Amino acid sequence: MMSRVPDSDRTNPLFAGHGPGYARTMTTTTGRADKSTAELVHDLTEQVSRLARDEVALATRELKNKARHAGLGAAIAGAGGVFAFYGGAVLVAACVLALALVLPAWAAALIIAGVLFVIAGVAVLVARKQLKEGTPPIPAEAIESAKEDIQAVKEARR
User: Fold this and answer.
1) pTM of the model
2) Domain count, the chain
3) Long-range Cβ contact pairs of 52-58 (< 8 A, separation 24 or more)
4) Where are the transmembrane segments (predicted)?
5) Domain containing 69: what range?
């Protein structure tokens, strides 16, 4: 015997993110002995299919959320970078002007440019090393949830 989940339970966080009709498919049985083997296999197929769809949906939501945060963070960092660039340009000009007090202006500008190119080269080498060590983003929560589901199924079979 199967019972339908009341419509009022559809607002339950358990059903959050699931499509319409998800709450209707959540059923309980009063006696397993009442079902035939074919019905049990059919139910198992439906439940495994629903579980797989839910895991994919969880992974999709998780990656979209991470991408949204990464995009926002990149935009804010870009805006900060523009202001830092202008501030750095003013500091470079100040360094050239200060060095021009003891050297000709052209020599002061060349010295400061050389120092800046050395700093840029070191930064590129460090960035290259960090980029090589980076790992691609993965939906860690969804993978962990799927592993737990697989473990629960294995334990239930025993």
Assistant:
1) 0.42
2) 1
3) 54/18, 55/142, 55/145, 55/146, 55/149, 57/17, 57/18, 58/17, 58/139, 58/141, 58/142, 58/145
4) 71-99, 105-127
5) 35-157
